[in-house]
Structure formats: structure tokens, C-alpha cells
């Protein structure tokens, strides 16, 4: 079976369109259709469902997607390593990241990396913890800035501890406290990130054996902080996730210190591509081991 056929199939599923897949890979639409038809003949069953809404993988094909992605990813690493040995740096590095780390950390690392490896193309994918775990497991990204747990059998390289803070409105009764006890915080309406992005909140509440009155679940950090500033509730938030000054909110340390560990998840640090190894080494040099709170 040909890796080109795997790429044709995976790209079609990702784009949900034969035409868009053809444009992206530099083929004609009939050429993509022919490769997928040939692959269907080889595996012995249909791979695609065509509908008015787009093109999708069949249930049988979904069982093959993971393995195709791993083969394509390994082939990319092989080509990149061979190019490196020959003194040619051409490749692609796909990086997953939380919104907070993409804003706070990535610009400096990308700038340094691009100076050293100007012909390596970087693709950035932002997502919540669950989304990044899935992208890693599927082979859709090469590494991810995230907190544990990483997917099973993946390496995790710790980089920094990011304190978790209480966040209240500036006119809130707790705003004048030097530090806030989580037990006092949950006496007020609680705002929690959408499912899949709420691990940090629950890590504190579960450790303290507390159950808040969840008034709102919000997908979007900016919306959450705006609502808190308008007196609609309180929350717990990692320091780095508060990426810019917000009007009418106050952040306070907790009476018992909690933090999230941020680092890089990758299938194998030892067998990573040359580009990935260089990126990781630069990150270790540029990212402080502990995130200091602003004065």
C-alpha cells in the first residue's frame, strides 16, 4: 500500500472534500479519487461516504485512520532525518498548545527556532487538554504544550509550574483579602470552563473536597473573565491563562498553593525528529522553570 494513498485519504477526511484535498496536495480531483478507489480495492471495503454535507470516513475506515496517521508521521520523520544527514533542512513541525502558552511562550521560541531553521515550516494548533490529547494520539501533531496526563506511552517533559489563583471582581467581598481560602470562594456563584478545559479548577476543588454552586459553564477565557469583572461569579484560573490585563477583576493566591505543571508531550523524546529535538531544546532554554507571579 502506498503512503501517497494514505495521505490522499487522510486529507480528504480532514477537508471533508475531494476537491479541497486535491488542491492541498497538488493533485487533480480525479487523481485523488483514483488513489482512494485503489486503496479501497486493496483493503476490501469502502472508505468514504459521500453526502451533500461533505465526504466522511466509513465506520470501517475510522478503525484504520490512527494507523495510517502513524505511518505518515513516521515517514515524515524519516524524510526529515535523511535531509538533516545530507545537510538539507526541509520539513514540517506540528505543534499543539493551550491558548495561554501560545500567547505567553510560543512567540519567543518560534522566533529563535526560525532563525536557526528557516526552512522548517511550523503549524500551530490551539486546543483544550482533551483536544490536544486526541490530536497527539491520532498523530495529527508532533508535540504539544500541555499539562499531564499525556496520552498513554507518551513522554512528558516538565517545563514550569503555573500557579492557580482565585479570580474575583474588584468590588467583590473577597477582593481585599491577601489570599483566599477555596472554601470561602465557593460560597459565591461559580463560573467554570467548558468540559475538557476545567481540569485545573477541579484539581483544586477535589483536593479540598469542595463542591461549588456552578452558575455558568463558559467556553472562552475572555468571556469568563469579563463576566467575573461584571460581578456574575468567581473562579479559579491558572496565572498564565490571564494573558492580558482585564478591567474590574482581581487575582489572589490561595491559602494553600496549587499549580498546574506545564510541559511538552511527545511520543518519544529519544526518537523525535531533528526539528522536534531542536524545538524542545530551545524551549528548555527560553522558558523559566517556575512562573513567577507579577508584583
TrEMBL record:
An example of a GO molecular function for this protein is: DNA binding
Any single Gene Ontology cellular-component annotation: protein-DNA complex
Chain segments annotated as transmembrane: none
Sorted alphabetically, which keywords does the UniProt record give? DNA-binding, Transcription, Transcription regulation
Question: Which protein family is it in?
Answer: Belongs to the LysR transcriptional regulatory family.
Q: Is Secreted among this UniProt entry's keywords? A: no
| Family annotation (InterPro entries) | LysR_HTH_N, LysR_subst-bd, WH-like_DNA-bd_sf, WH_DNA-bd_sf
Name of the protein in question: LysR family transcriptional regulator
Q: Which residues form a coiled coil?
A: none
Show where the HTH lysR-type domain sits: 1-58
Read off the Pfam families from this record: HTH_1, LysR_substrate
Q: Does the keyword Phosphoprotein apply?
A: no
Amino acid at each position: 500500500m502506498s503512503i501517497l494513498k494514505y495521505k490522499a485519504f487522510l486529507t480528504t477526511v480532514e477537508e471533508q472534500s475531494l476537491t479541497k484535498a486535491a488542491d492541498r496536495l497538488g493533485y487533480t480531483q480525479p487523481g485523488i479519487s483514483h488513489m482512494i478507489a485503489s486503496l479501497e480495492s486493496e483493503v476490501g471495503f469502502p472508505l468514504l461516504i459521500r453526502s451533500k454535507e461533505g465526504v466522511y470516513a466509513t465506520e470501517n475506515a475510522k478503525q484504520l485512520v490512527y494507523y495510517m496517521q502513524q505511518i505518515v508521521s513516521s515517514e515524515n520523520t524519516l524524510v526529515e532525518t535523511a535531509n538533516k544527514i545530507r545537510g538539507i533542512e526541509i520539513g514540517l513541525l506540528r505543534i499543539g498548545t493551550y491558548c495561554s502558552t501560545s500567547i505567553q511562550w510560543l512567540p519567543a521560541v518560534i522566533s529563535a527556532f526560525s532563525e536557526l531553521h528557516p526552512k522548517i515550516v511550523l503549524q500551530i494548533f490551539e486546543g483544550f487538554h482533551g483536544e490536544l490529547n486526541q490530536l497527539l494520539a491520532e498523530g495529527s501533531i508532533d508535540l504539544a504544550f500541555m499539562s499531564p496526563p499525556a496520552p498513554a506511552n507518551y513522554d512528558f517533559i516538565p517545563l514550569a509550574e503555573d500557579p492557580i489563583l482565585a479570580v474575583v471582581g474588584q468590588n467583590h467581598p473577597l477582593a481585599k483579602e491577601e489570599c483566599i481560602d477555596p472554601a470561602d470562594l465557593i460560597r459565591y456563584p461559580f463560573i467554570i470552563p467548558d468540559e475538557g478545559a476545567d481540569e485545573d479548577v477541579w484539581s483544586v476543588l477535589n483536593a479540598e473536597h469542595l463542591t461549588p454552586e456552578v452558575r455558568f459553564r463558559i467556553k472562552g477565557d475572555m468571556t469568563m473573565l469579563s463576566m467575573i469583572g461584571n460581578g456574575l461569579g468567581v473562579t479559579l484560573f491558572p496565572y498564565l491563562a490571564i494573558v492580558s490585563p482585564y478591567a474590574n477583576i482581581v487575582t489572589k493566591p490561595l491559602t494553600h498553593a496549587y499549580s498546574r505543571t506545564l510541559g511538552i508531550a511527545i511520543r518519544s523524546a529519544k526518537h523525535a525528529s531533528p526539528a522536534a529535538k531542536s524545538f524542545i531544546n530551545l524551549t528548555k532554554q527560553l522558558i523559566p522553570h517556575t512562573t513567577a507571579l507579577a508584583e
